[in-house]
Amino acid sequence: MIRKINGEFIKLRHLHLFAIVIGIDLLAVTLGALLYFQNKKVFASFHTQWLALWSESGLFYAQIFLPLLLALMVAVVIRCEKEQHNFSRMAVVPLKASQLILRKFSTLALLTAAGVAVFIFAFYCIGFAGRFPINRTIGSFLWWGTLGWIGTFPILGIQFWLSIRLKNFTTPIIFALGLSLANFILLTISQALVRLYPYAQIMIGLHARSYEDLSLLQVILFLGIVTIFCGGSLIFSVATLKRQGFE
């Protein structure tokens, strides 16, 4: 499996996806830092510099930048396979649709993990450069970043299904934009609905709007939503590929 995933990374090399991921992650942190430093005196007076910078950066990242980045990555990967007629070629070799989807999903999940790591690293660099006080909260961001990464799984799965099913390259990305913006609407309606919404799981895991750690029940709900939507969308992706000739 590791060798096959490495092969997928080699195929992605000419697409420059890693550079795009790094660029968007750094852009999100930079925008968050600019917003923070515009109001730094307020945050400094309450000794919440780390949390404020995380929130300012995380809101852009979790609700707009990362969902669109995931949609773009999936759309580019699937489009390349379609343009080169690779799905048709692979349908005649002993490769199951489930294996193909899992391989590509794992590859993009690892690429996303690298991007999240860059986001966290840049966040810490800005905090230390700004001489933020060292306190017990600074270690929490590693855990929150990990949960945020796990929260990307439902979006990756849904975007795989949309990109495989739809012929147009831009349509899945437009769907991702609309579904991401729906976060803001749901926030005004009900927090309970937000916790059940697949495109809000990055925000929940990343703690972009809440500084409190998730309770055990909330963690179970978070992992349950991730599993249901990720697993369900990957099953639909496999079924769609099978209709294209895979077994």
From TrEMBL:
Keywords: Membrane, Transmembrane, Transmembrane helix. The chain crosses the membrane at residues 12-38, 58-80, 108-129, 141-162, 174-194, 214-241. This is Membrane protein. The keyword Repeat does not apply. The keyword Membrane applies. It comes from the Bacteria. It comes from Agrilactobacillus composti DSM 18527 = JCM 14202. CDD domains: ABC-2_lan_permease-like (cd21809).
